[in-house]
């Protein structure tokens, strides 16, 4: 195995361990939290900025307003996730939640690795012995092929990995 293989395996294992540790419910609420927080900032960030002192720099007001909303939404979704995960654990479904969290973690890790490989494929690293001799890289390239199938044709030039 090459250094690329060890990085791929390490990223997959780390993501899977985090998935088991947190469980599916908390993982999903974390993902939902990121999405909801970004949407909330885009929708209401300027509203909060309007409540801050008018003599402050407008950029600082927008930044603080966005941060307040972002952090608030992240905390709220995290608490909801913990509450629901606790309810599942109390109902005896904790092991199922953790097992499904393992699967979610593997999929997330595979996505992260695929993005990393996509980016590295456009650098000189892609010509190295570690790259060409990798055992796991062809499997990740298969995943990239799945993404290529769903991306519009006008984005085709960026897929030359």
UniProtKB/TrEMBL annotation:
- Protein known as: CvpA family protein
Q: Which membrane topology term applies here? A: Multi-pass membrane protein
Specify the superkingdom. Answer: Bacteria
For this entry, list what GO says about its biological process.
toxin biosynthetic process
* Keywords for the protein's UniProt record, in alphabetical order: Membrane, Transmembrane, Transmembrane helix
**Assigned GO CC terms:** membrane
Q: Which species expresses this protein natively?
A: Derxia gummosa DSM 723
Tell whether Transmembrane is among the UniProt keywords: yes
Show the InterPro entries listed in the entry. Colicin-V_CvpA, CvpA-like
Q: Which Pfam families match?
A: Colicin_V (PF02674)
Compartment(s):
Membrane
Q: Which residues cross the membrane?
A: 6-24, 31-52, 64-87, 99-122, 128-147
């Amino acid at each position: 195995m090459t250094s690329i293989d060890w990085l791929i395996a390490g990223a997959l294992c780390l993501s899977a361990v985090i998935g088991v540790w947190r469980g599916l419910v908390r993982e999903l609420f974390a993902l939902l939290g990121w999405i909801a927080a970004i949407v909330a900032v885009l929708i209401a960030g300027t509203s909060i900025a309007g409540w801050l002192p008018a003599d402050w720099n407008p950029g600082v007001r927008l930044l603080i307003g966005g941060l307040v909303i972002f952090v608030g939404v992240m905390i709220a979704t995290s608490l909801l996730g913990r509450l629901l995960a606790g309810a599942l654990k109390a109902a005896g479904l904790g092991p199922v939640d953790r097992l499904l969290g393992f699967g979610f973690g593997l999929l997330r890790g595979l996505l992260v690795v695929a993005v990393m490989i996509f980016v590295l494929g456009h650098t000189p690293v892609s010509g190295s012995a570690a790259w060409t001799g990798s055992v796991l890289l062809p499997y990740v390239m298969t995943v990239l092929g799945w993404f290529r199938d769903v991306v519009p044709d006008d984005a085709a030039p960026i897929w030359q990995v």
